[in-house]
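My current task is to audit a protein record that another person submitted. Thanks in advance; the entry in question is below:
***
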Amino acid sequence: MTTLKFPSTKRKLSFLAIAVLGAVSSSWASAQDILGPYIGGNVGQTKADFDNDSINRRVTNQGLKINSSTEDNRDTGYKVFGGYQFNRNIALEGGYFDLGSFNYGLNTTPIGSFSGSSRIRGLNLDLVGTLPLSSQFSVIGRVGAAYAQTKANFARTGAVAPNTFDTQRKDTNLKVGIGLQYAITEALSLRAELERYRINDPVRNRGHVDMASLGLVYRFGPKAQTPVAYVPIAAAPQPPAAVYVAPAPVYVAPPPPPAVMVPAPAPQPVYVAPTRPAKEGRN
């Protein structure tokens, strides 16, 4: 059976998620982007990839030979989530996920059997980036942490030592994803996503679960303002400014000097010669 190679696929998903988150800072918003809180849910197909060899080694170390093995690593999973859109490119999203159950079994010689089932559920917190491609389509990428509880039920019979027990494991691991979003209306969008959850199984050790899903997102916040190019408004022509012409200087003759009053000379005394009296009787 051909399985996904964890290291190479994980790196590809990580690179895609980081590329989207790095590119969104310079992108333009689509017309229907809305800021504020939102809720949503996805449902889809899950596929697990665990280290089954760890179980096989334990069985063969008991001196048993494995005749055949079976596994069912596919199931239906879902998630519900809520988030907050800080701007047209970045959101923070948290939610609950259930990845389903995955089974493994084997038969041995001497006659014996082993069977187990693992159920995976948990909580996640992701940073989500959006890169609009058009007014309705956007690429989304996510990177975050998943707190997963893996609860396992196992049964052993025959030579494998009869024993039935339950066990569980809780761990926080990396979670990445990428998807495509289509805006049906300004508030309602359709999402198609591929996500990878890194999981620690109680018996099969480290592995991962991929989920391909479809979902809906409903946004409550106000619509983001789309940048509008600034076009300056031409100012109305103004009449030419009046030219001030200074009046020609007018020559004003200085006033004449004040007249000098020269006092009139005092009148000179007039000499009057004495007159001789006429001699009487002279004829």
Remarks:
- The domain at 6-219 is CATH 2.40.160.20 (Porin).
- Confidence is low (pLDDT under 50) at residues 1-7, 20-31.
- DSSP finds two helices and nine strands in the chain.
- Residues 6-23 form the longest helix (18 residues).
